[in-house]
Request: fold
Amino acid sequence: MSIQRRDTKQKRAIWSIVEAAGRPLSPSEVHTQVVRCLPRVSLSTVYRSLKALQDERRVVAVSLPGEPDRYETKIIADHHHHHFYCDECGKVFDVPGCGLQIDRRLPKGFELTRHEVVLYGSCSECA
Reply:
């Protein structure tokens, strides 16, 4: 039995915003953008739509310590990268690739399966 996915104009608009952003967005950032074209969309609709897009594996939650989740497309998330958190504006940006060779620093017998790095500072707009 297949699950029927509900495709609404709100969800399509939210998907377009996340897809075009080029960086992880918080639900409130998505909401700020979506109300420009659909003024009656509530923040709870944004959360529900992001959850639905996550269930459909179109978006992935980006979790940072002490921060609410942000969302980016699965296509971006599938490529190993890190994140930069701007301490001034609170935006999160993707840092492509990974120059870390952390597996060389592991104690003997350890096996690395994944790692996450978050960089903190000021973005180009805030610096």
In short: The first strand starts at residue 59 and ends at 62. The chain has a mean pLDDT of 91. Strands lie at 59-62, 70-73, 81-86, 92-96, 118-121. The chain has one domain: 9-121.
